[in-house]
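Thread: quick sanity check before group meeting

JM: Hey all, I'm pulling together slides for Thursday and realized we never actually wrote out the predicted structure for the chain we discussed last week. Dropping the sequence here so it's in one place. If anyone has concerns about the input, flag it before I start.
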Amino acid sequence: MKDLESGETWQRLHPVTPLLRAVQLLYAFVIAAVVTSLGSRSTLIFVLAIMGLIAAWITLAYLRFRYRLSEESLIILHGVFIRKRRVIPRSRIQNVDLRAGVLQQIFGTTTARIETAGGQTTEAILHVVSRSEGARLRKELVALSRRAPPTAVGEAARVAAVSGPPFEPTETLAEASRQPQMVYRVTPLQLVIAGATSNRAGLLVGALLGGDFLFDFVPTDWLLRRVLPPELFDPETAMNGMLQIAQRDLQAFLLGLGMLVAFFGLAGWAISVLTSVVRYFDFSFTQSGGELKVSYGLLTRREKGFRRSRIQNVQIEESLLRRWLGFASLHSQTAGYGQMKADERMETLTPITRASELAPHLEAAFPGFRWEEVEWRPSHPRARRRLFVRRALVILVATLLLAPVSSWALLLLLAMVPAWFLAAAHYRHLGHARLGEYILVREGLWNRRTHIVPVRKIQALYFRQSPFQRRLDLGTLTLETAGNPIEWHAPRSIDLGTSYGVELMGELAAEVTETGLTF
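JM (edit): ok, ran it. Output follows.
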């Protein structure tokens, strides 16, 4: 099919699109099978009719869907009853995300998700295209619309040098023609380490233990019967009976508790490791000119390409275990996501790497960035007091609530000592730094996050003070960038001195104004 105005040929989706999109009909088929076994003929006819309507709608939607790439845009025609024509300028496209589930991998197809800045949802989804077509779309759309000739690029650079860069220059033909270079590839052993050192493992332990206590989906009584005398507890209520065992036989209680901790701990870590291996299977991170690409996944294969110039900030994440072992993970955020899950807005540049080997990863995202030259400035010394008071208030409230029940609750006050050491340890992980055109902020004790933000990408700044911060003359400086996930707070530097924080905010605002509007 050719466009009457341009004469260019429109593209169809892959022929297996109706089949793959109709997989949801399996649910209706299962319902129909159940209804048939119950002997309800009218309900069966109704379900089959609904299945037929859904299949017809999917087929019509496929036949009415067209797309093509023009000089400057991706153009999509779709709609069964209401015909829609959508035009997406190439220069506004942030990312192209290719995802292939198990069935799609079998058929050699993928789903292309096109993201732009500020959209409330994914701007366009192409269900389903071949792998080669998906790779072509990613390559064509991630590259800037049409690369300017050398004279135009030189003129853009000259204007930027005089008045500051109002936009980011297009990549040159030489950059675009570069062969992809492997930045990092993750081995299976590294994925095992990533799962074992993730904070997800601890959360899974709590979830398994709580789920067993509430729903009894793990044979806890069978486990306890192997180490405890059966007369000590009722097998039907093993978890509840542990509290009674503690009153009658402390040694047996500790033995049973140790076994439960070991079992649920190993189960939590095993699930975390399995999740990490399945999700990031065969992970690779490559760069080609101004394009970065990550590829990973076993059950759902994901390939994502995005322009380096579109990165809003980079985040280094180090859980407590990873810091001890010298590992870290790296994520980047672009402006190309609407109402999506927070963990999907931060694209993984590497699920795990040696902390000492972060420099090449960061330079791939930010050319010229020198991680080894970063000099951290700590938060205000009064931040220690604030961090301690927050913990001390929790201990004090718990003591006051439990004291009427038992005088032993007063022993909770002894926790004030470790609370002070935890506050001091937490303080050591707060701070910020300036390095050329970048500002870095970090925070977190159990899971330290370090954000690297190009100043030109800052969209807004604000200085917030809680009542206790005002009392200590402290405040938190927050750096908003385009597309920051609502579920996660923006990069921020906690507990700066008020006068210094306001001054720093003014300096950054002046620099942002000079750079002009960028995404």
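AS: nice. The chain is about 45% helix and 25% strand. Residues 250-279 form the longest helix (30 residues).
JM: adding both to the slides.
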